Structures are given as C-alpha cells and as structure tokens.
Amino acid sequence: MNTRLSLVLPGLPPEDGEALGVAVARQLADDERRMSRFAPGAELASANRAAANGPFPLSEKLFEELSMCRAHWVRTGGAFDITLGAVNDNLRLAKSGDAVSGWEHVDLDAARRTVSFAREGLRLDLGGIGKGIALAALGQLLRERGVAHAFVSFGDSSILTIGSQPSGDHWPVGIRDRFDAELSLHTFGLSDRSVSTSGIDPTAPHLIDASTHDMPGGRRTLSIACDCPIDAEVLSTALIVRNPTARAAILANYPAAQGVEFAWHEVGGRPAAEKAWSHAA
Amino acid sequence: MPHDDFGATGDARFSLPARRDFLKAIAASLGGAAVLGELPWLSPLRAAPPGRSPSDRVRLGLIGVGSRGRFLMDHLLRTPGVEVAGVCDDYAPHLESAHAATGGKAFATPDYRVLLDMQGIDGLVIATPLHLHAPMCLAAFAAEKHVFCEKSLALTIDDCKRVATAASRSSRVFHIGHQRLFDARFHKALDHMRRGDLGPITQIRAYWHRNLDWRRAPPSPDLERRFNWRLYREYSAGLMGELASHHLHVTNWILDGSPLACIGYGSINYWRDGREVFDNVNVVYRYAGDVQLVYDSLSSNKHHGMEVQVMGPKGTIELETGRMFWETPPEVPPSPGVAELARQLENGPAATVPLAAPTWSAELESTADGVPIVANWAGDDGTGLSIAAFANAVRSGEQTPHMIDHAYRSGVAALMGLQAMEQRREIAWPGNYAV
Fold it and tell me: Is residue B345 within 8 angstroms of chain A, CB to CB?
C-alpha cells in the first residue's frame, strides 16, 4: 500500500509488540499480494490484465471484497466506484483519450467465483478502500491477540481505534490543519471506531467524480468517523465529490456515521480553514 | 583453412566508432563510486583509447568456440583495438561457425597448439571444458602468450596452484572470466557495504537453483561425453565449478579473503541419468571473523532462482538483482502526530493530537521489493568491460592487479566444497600458491 503504518499499543511488553509486529506485517503483505494493482504478481493486477479475455478465477477473499465494493457503489448512488482505475491513471499521468469504466462492464460470477470485463482497458482500483479493508482485518487480528487498547494509523488518512486510551474513555483524534501541522480543526472522540480523511487539492489531484470523470475543485478535506473502517473509507471518498444534498441521501444508508469538511480560502494572503459541512459531528 | 594476417577486427554490426561508443558507455557507468580505489583491476580501463596503428592492435586467439566461447567472441568483436586472429575448436561445426562469424578472416584450427606457435597472436582466450583449463593455460604461458581463461580456474586444487604460480611468474597478463569484477552494480553494492550500510557482515547466503537436466543433445552417441562434459567428473566439477565458483568469487571479494574451511553434502537425487556429478550441492563455508557463507544449488527446482544475499544487522543487499533492504527503512520518518500521542500516553492521558489528514497522493507502486542499488540499470553485466580490460592490459603488457588471486581463491573454494561433499568431511583451506 506504499504508506506508513503506525501502531500505538499501550501497555504491551516490547517482546509481545515485536511478535505482534511480525504478524501484522505478514498480514499486510498478504493484503498487498491480493489487492495491489501495481505489483505485477498481485491477484488484482493479474485480474486487471486478464479479465477482458474471459472469466478470471478469484480467491474467495478478493471475490467477496469486489462484491462488497459493488454493494457500496449501489449504496452511495454511484459515488464510490472502483472501476475508475483507468480514468484515474489518465488523469494522474496526464494522458488523453477515453478510459473505460463502469460496473456495467464488469461481471462478477458468484457461482464460478470469477470476474470478467466486457471492455478491454477497464481497471479495478482498490486504492480508495484497500486501507479500510486492511484496517478491519488488523483490528480483528489485534483483538484476537487480546489487545484492548490500540491506535492504528495508515499514513494518517485511515485510522482505527480499539477500545479507548488507557486513562480515558476514548481516543481524542484531531483533524490536522493542512497548513498548520500542530493545529487540530476538529476532534473525534473515538472508541472502537475509525476515521478516514480524504482531501482535494489542485496541486495533488487524485479523486474523481464518478459521474463526470472530472476532478472536483477547491481545497478541501472531508473526514468520516464510523464503526467500520471500510465504511469510513467508502464515505470519505464518495462524499467529497458530492454536494450536501447528495451527501445526505448517501448517509441515510450509513447510520451512525459522523462527518466534517473543511475548506481553505485565502485570507490576508494566507490560507485559512473554515468548516464547510458537518453531519452528526 | 586460409590464414589472414589481419584477422577479424569487427563486422558489419560493429564499426570501430560504434565499438568505442559502446566502451565509453559502459565505462561511464562506473563513475562516482567511492569504492573505485578498492577495485585495482579496473586500472587497465583508464588507458587511452587505442589508436589505429597496427601496434595498437591486440591480436587474440579463441580456444573453444562453443556457447560461452561464442559469447566472448561477440564481445571481442565489439572491443576497440581487438582483432580475433585465430579460432580453435575440435568440433568442426562450432569451428566453422566461428570462422564464418569473423568473416572468414581469422585463422581456424582444431589444434590449439597451432595457435601457441603463431607469432602474430598476442594472447589466448580459453573457453574450453574445465579439465583443459590448466594444461592450456600452462602451455600458453610457456609459449609467452597472454591468457584470458574462463572460470573456474582448474579441475583440481593442485592444478589451480600450478596455473596461479605460472601466471604469477609469467611476464604475460592473466585474466579470469569473473565478469562481476567489472559489473557496476557490484561496485555500488560494495560501496554500500564498505560505508557500513549493512553494519558488520554477519552472513552471506547464495544459491543458484534451476530446473533442468543440464544436457545437450549430442549429434551422435559417441559424442555424449564431449557434449555433456559438465556431467562427468573426469572433466567437470559440476555445479561447484560451473555455478558456485561465481558466488564463491563474490564472497571472497566481499570478505576480502579465502574460506578457512567448509563442510557440506551433495547427492544425485533427481537426475539419475548416468551423470557423475551431484545434481544438488549444499555447502557451508567458514571465513575469518566467524562469518559463514551458506551455499546451495539445485537442478530440480527453480523457484528461488539465483541470488547472493549479504546480511548485516542494518540490512540486506541482494547482489544479482541489485536491491537493498533496510532492517528499518530510513525513508519512512515517524508520523509527528503519532510520536506526540505516544509521548503523551507515557505521561498520562493524551489530549487531542492532530492525527488525521489526507495522504494527498494516489496509491502508487510499493518499494517493498527493495530499493535498486543502481537506478534504471541497463548496462553491461561486466563481460564487455572485462574483455576490454584484458585487451588494454595486453596492450600495455602490465599484469592486472589481484586478478590471479581472484582466480585462485574462487577456483580452490569451489573444489574445497566438492571435496567436502565427496569425502563427507571438513576440508581446510589448502594454502596459497607459490609465487
């Protein structure tokens, strides 16, 4: 996943922490081998190369994950869409030309556990949800190992908590200001919950509006807290490309989610943050 | 066969300017390595480019023009100032093919002794079966020819001593075909090691695994032993001589010494086809400083391929694929927010810490497969530079530093491993050659 993983495990003896670190690394390597679209030998990368030639057999795990992504595509009214891999590549690499996307070109055959593409060039991309899937599995691993208090962060954008901090009733997780790393714009009090943050910045484009294939404008971050780290990833990716009305419709399908969005504007020649939207937060 | 005094100095594929560009390009790849002072065998490459006068021309004869010999010949034909003046092989189709590749200009003979007697030939490139290396090298020195001998040095330890002694006493140049000595990736890796990037080296692990029978189909049954000489102990040291000698050479180079002793086991456990050499070898070598080399080579499974892994407390370098793995990757600093959270937790409850933020970038390729030692490497594997260095050394008449030691140490180490497996006992380093 090419990002930093931070684990804070209060009260764990160092030897236990080292053993746990090895188990975590092993599990993440498995996730990478399954979900990466860049590592040539990864299962998803292989499927992307071959599925236009006919049904490509998938592992049980990846089949379930792709099916879950399709369900989130429905629940978000099409705002969360993993079929945008080729569109994303075109924008990121400044390539011209049409890129194929859309679930109508993807056939997930549950009976044979295969995936096939009706169009050449389509690429599935788990970049927007893979860290959530990995975090959910890590949470399960840590709980099975008896960990009662944990803070887990994937590159700061995807955070999972187990229990609360040892001397409190939650983990106080601040949303960092884009232009002042020591400033928290908002605090989520998390206990057995997750938070995911997506950002839009004209200097680092990487999120796409599935309906228009355009990059949304402005300089914004949107954070979602909810019980499931996968839902948090889906929502932070989907909501940031939708207007408040559409966001409300999507959130009706995700009870107990909280959200907050900040936007930056020039004030006196300096960027200043203001809360642009919030939901139950 | 016709004898052309001017031999073959190139063909339509490689004009002289093209060959000069080729040499410049591969020599440039060495620039910048801080370890250059530790690579004295590169000194011939610093010579001025050869001129066009006949006296600048190095005239070489090739003995053995099978697959490896032809590979070397292709490089010779691309090396500035080198003339392939003679070719020799006792298998007529190989000889005729090599002769044709020189445009019919090289003198062709099935008897290598004819090349020894040719006054117009400065040096010989020997790419014959292992058992012939020693007699041919000794005969070449006796005939006052310069010698480039393919690895491994010889079939027996006594022969290794004889050849190394003769080479050290000869006024002629001796080179061994360990091309990794001239591979920029190995130089860069050595630079990392000498700067302490791995910490002290604690183990080297090397392997060369293939899934093949190592056989060639002879054109007639009576040529079986000649074609498949690698499989017969009379001519060959098997996997130790043909493959392990490369990685033993690299290990000796990195650890700057010879193995003190070795133990090992080998067997024929899959290719039971009448061969006389092991189809799997497994040897542990002990070096000074309590460092071990663990070496194995299989002929029945290729899953792990080939690699040399140099390990220390700070990291691992994989030499063949040119990758570095840090035990603690330095390129990932701790998240300031997480570090602050941990600091606060050690002193009681944590207050709000700015921990959540977007990544601002797309998911891209992981570097978990290691960091390339030389970025975007597409250069020579050392063979071209090795040939060019030999040609320059012949031109100057100056012996290339350390070359005989490299040849002797790796050749002997390979045979020590073979002895350990055949005799099922520990084999000690047999001592140096007489100078």
Answer: yes
Cβ distance of B335 and A159 shorter than 8 Å = no
Instruction: Give contacts of A175 with chain B, Cβ < 8 Å.
Output: 354, 356-357
Residue with tokens 């086991």: B265
Q: Which two tokens stand for residue B235?
A: 């001519």
Model confidence pLDDT, tens digit, residues B103-138: 999 999 999 999 999 999 999 999 999 999 999 999
Q: Which residues, at least 6 apart from B54, have a Cβ–Cβ distance to it below 8 Å?
A: none
Q: What is the mean pLDDT of chain A?
A: 91
Q: Could you tell me the CA-to-CA distances from B219 to A170, A235, B45, B360 in Å, in that order?
A: 80, 70, 42, 65
Give the other-Cβ count within 10 Å of B200's Cβ: 11
Q: What share of chain B is helix, strand, coil (3-state, %, to 5)?
A: 40, 20, 40
Of A32, A173, A195, the CB nearest to B366: A32
Rounded to a whole number of angstroms, the distance from the CA of B349 to the nearest CA of chain A is: 5
CB count in 10 Å sphere of residue A219: 18
Burial of B408 (0-12, 13-18, 19+ CB in 10 A): buried
Q: Dig out the tokens for B257 from the structure.
A: 């010494």
Query: Which of B335, B352, B358 is facing A199, going by the closest CB pair?
Result: B358
Q: Chain A partners of B337 at a C-beta cutoff of 8 Å?
A: 156, 174, 176, 181
Nearest to A223 among B332, B335, B356 (CB): B356
- Give the count of beta carbons closer than 10 Å to the beta carbon of residue A64: 14
- pLDDT tens sequence across B171-188: 999 999 999 998 878 888
Contact between B34 and B193 (Cβ < 8 Å): no
Report yes or no: A212 at the B interface, CB cutoff 8 Å: no
Cβ atoms of B130 and B241 within 8 Å: the answer is yes
Residues 158-197 of A with CB under 8 A from B: 159, 165-168, 171-178, 181-184, 187-188, 195, 197
User: With contact defined as beta carbons under 8 Å apart, do B312 and B254 qualify?
Assistant: no
Residue B16's closest CA among B49, B44, B65, B62? B49
Q: How many Å apart are CA A151 and CA A64, to the nearest integer? A: 27
Q: Could you tell me the strand order of the sheet in which A220-226 lies? A: A5-8, A150-154, A158-162, A194-200, A220-226, A258-267, A270-279
The continuous run of DSSP H or E covering B262 comes out as: strand B261-267
- Measured CA to CA, the distance from residue B35 to residue A163 in angstroms comes to 53
Reading the block at residue B312, the tokens are 């220390």
Query: Å from A111 to nearest chain B CA?
Result: 32
Amino acid at the residue A7: L
Band (pLDDT 50/70/90 cuts) for residue A204 is low
| Mean pLDDT, residues B238-254 | 97
Comparing A4-8, A194-198, B46-50, B306-310, which segment has the lowest mean pLDDT? B46-50
Q: What is the percent of chain B where pLDDT is above 90?
A: 68
Task: Look at B352 and A92 and tell me if their CB atoms are within 8 Å.
Answer: no
Rg (CA), chain B: 25
CA proximity to B390, closest of B56, B146, B33, B210 = B146
Residue A218 touches chain B, beta carbons under 8 Å: no
The distance of Cα A20 from the centroid of its chain, to the nearest Å, equals 24
Contact of B226 with B236, CB cutoff 8 Å: no
Residues 6+ apart with CB under 8 A from A48: A37, A85, A122, A123, A124
What is the per-residue pLDDT across A26-73, written as a single tens digit (0 to 9) for each?
889 889 889 999 888 899 999 999 999 999 999 999 999 999 999 999
Chain A interface test: which of B355, B361, B365, B371 (most A C-beta within 10 Å): B355
- Short-list A139, A126, A120, CA closest to A58: A126
